[in-house]
Design brief:
This protein is α/β, with parallel strands linked by helices. Helices cover 52% and strands 12% of the residues. Strand 9 and strand 10 form a beta hairpin. Helix 9 packs parallel to helix 10, helix 12 runs parallel beside helix 13 and helix 14 runs parallel beside helix 15. It is globular. The N and C termini lie far apart (88 Å). The N terminus is likely disordered.
Amino acid sequence: MSLPLNSLLRCTIRLDRKHVVRHLVHQRALSGADAVNALRPFYFAVHPDFFGQYPREREVNENSLKRLNGYLDNLHKAGSRSVQPMRLTFYVRDTKESSDGPPDLLASGFRPVSFTLHTSDVLSTVTNVLKSCSLPVEHVKGLKGNAETSKNAAGVGWPLYRPIKWNKSYYMFTGFRDPEDELQQARRVEPGLISWLRNNEREAAKKHSASRPRRQELNRLKEELCHKFDLSDIRWQRSWGVAHRCCQLQSLSRLSQQNPEALVNLQGHTVVFADQSGMNASGHIMLGTMDVHHQWTKLFEQLPGYRSLQQQTDWLKERISLLLGGTQVVHVERLRPVQSIGEHYGSLSAFHKSLVSRRLRLHPRSLQGLTMLLENDCSKPSLHEMGHFIIPTSSDPPKLQVFLQSHAPEARQRTLRKKQLQAEEEALVKLCLQNLSLSLSKEPSVSPSQMILCCRRLVEQRPPLMQGLHICVSHFYSVMQDGDLCVPWDWKS
């Protein structure tokens, strides 16, 4: 018996829609493996391992790569909502693969590139990133056709991924740099600590002596501004040199002299010189180093509104804690890119609405003493090695409850271990200062366990030539512009 005409038309339309939707979903999820392979020239142009001598640029690239990976992960999620535009900045090395000559190449061999991602599929995003960095895109054009071919052959599912490893002759004849060789060269065996100190101690002492007047001026300006406007502290988002930081404080000091009323609203706050102005998720006032006094003054006038938003944020944290058995929402700046108070409030609000819509059965104090970070860019909950939970804002509440309850004992053990490590680290740093007569600090990326191993070996071996030096424990050797010496935490004898 034949179908009526109307039923046949409806059936045909449904089939067409199903085919179109399946095609669009496949295009959106265009092979994460293919995306990584297409971005290989980009990754080797911005990889932080190649910026060991430039800690500021290295930190910028590390943060931007985390955000880019989160953006791509969101695009790969099945049924994920449209992503928000994202502004990124990278320092790009000259790898001889640029499609156009880089006119703004710095003397150090890399150039700053900023661009905004607003694409809604992986293929367009990959192309946008490569073009923005003046890198070739010819190899990307075949991805779409390859994906279609693979889809037709296999019906559904991801295309077969086979990583490409070019023969050495390819680089010999094209003149391109072999990224594998460059990466190995960057990680080549480092010199011993004593020999490196012997070769660089004089240069470091000379630079430190030259920067001493600027350091004194920096301390004077910081104390003066904190006392005059009752600031909690003054900090810097990046590892800028002393001269750079002095200029920033002098600029704020001039504004305070020209318009002292403008700074009254800063009372009680921590000021952070950063890439952009506003209030961050911790409630600190960020002053963009590229902004002018007019923009800073406008921000100061808006601070009452920011404080109101901060109060609403604190209220949401309290409500979430009550719903999740006493688990506290925290924001650890060193573990994530800078987040504005508006973005933080949006994440908390969306998460709170999700929890309220599904009644959870958790005792109000069953998870007391545990902490959690909210993440927009992760797909499933996890437990950090330092004991805090990392929770996606889009978590399913019942599944989240099961995860928190099942991982609570391990979280408590890790939290206790973290406190023990921090106490041991503080004691060993103090011992190094007493026994070796040096100034000792570390980069945020150095973990407490790494710092403990470093300090323990310093105390045991007492390397000569360290007395009076300013040492920063890092992942590489470097003499900074102000005379500080960066040494890797796993230095060799």
